[in-house]
Amino acid sequence: MTRLGLFGGTFDPIHNAHLRLALELKQLCQIDDMRLVPAHIPPHRSTPHCSPQQRLALLRRAVENCPQLGIDERELHRHTPSYTVDTLQELAAEVGSEVSLCLCIGGDSLVNLPTWHRWQEVFELANVIVAVRPGYELPSQGPVAQCLAQRRIDVAQLAQHERGKIAIADSSLLDISASYIRQELAARRSAQFLVPDSVWAAIVQDGLYMPTKNTKK
Ligand SMILES: Nc1ncnc2c1ncn2[C@@H]1O[C@H](COP(=O)(O)OP(=O)(O)OP(=O)(O)O)[C@@H](O)[C@H]1O
Ligand SMILES: O=C(O)c1ccc[n+]([C@@H]2O[C@H](COP(=O)([O-])O)[C@@H](O)[C@H]2O)c1
């Protein structure tokens, strides 16, 4: 069975930790097709600083030299909040039953999963792969702990389950966040080396996230 990996985010902007996580999970979990899925209207945060078009342009730059990673633009074409369950439903109908959907998230997103729109339905459509640092303490109480007790498998068992399971994957998780990058740029400091060189060149060229220029198009 083919595995289609989906790594969603606001990507405001995409940075090296996102890219490294996507690449590590693709390799570790033997994902055949790994796609970054930029959110148009992220459900649980305020409007992103850059427009969807600007964030997409940076994503395209980020993966231009990385054939292992692709971009799925479907959320950008929807004008409703970018609920993951809607994306998975659309994809499941499109790819058919021979493809196992693997939703990839960071450990910080796992703890918020029960607040997602129709979150239990995610498991009817996909497996969830959670990237955590080695030694990360998973929740021991509450809905996430219950969900793990019912659904947890090892990464090596993904092949036996098309959907409905959670695999915890050790990952390096670089200590970079988009908010730190935005904060540095707003203070006129450099964010070089936190993002790919191609992304950095575009940020500088267009003055993105910097105080003097208007970043909305
Ligand atoms: N440093 C990181 N290492 C691994 N995963 C990350 C890291 N930062 C974000 N993620 C994961 O990437 C996905 C998309 O994150 P997002 O686009 O919100 O980036 P962010 O850097 O967390 O942004 P912000 O700082 O604006 O909140 C989420 O699943 C999140 O868990
Ligand atoms: O479906 C939801 O209700 C939901 C709630 C919060 C976040 N998400 C998704 O989780 C991913 C990371 O979100 P964020 O806000 O951390 O960039 C992104 O793909 C969002 O669409 C999804």
Automatic annotation (TrEMBL):
Pfam families named among the record's database cross-references: CTP_transf_like
Keyword Lipoprotein: no
Record-listed E.C. numbers: 2.7.7.18
Entry keyword set: ATP-binding, NAD, Nucleotide-binding, Nucleotidyltransferase, Pyridine nucleotide biosynthesis, Transferase
Catalytic reactions of this protein: nicotinate beta-D-ribonucleotide + ATP + H(+) = deamido-NAD(+) + diphosphate
The family this protein is said to belong to: Belongs to the NadD family.
NCBIfam families, alphabetized: cyt_tran_rel, nicotinate (nicotinamide) nucleotide adenylyltransferase, PRK00071.1-1, PRK00071.1-3
Name of this protein: Probable nicotinate-nucleotide adenylyltransferase
Protein species of origin: Halioxenophilus aromaticivorans
Encoding gene per record: nadD
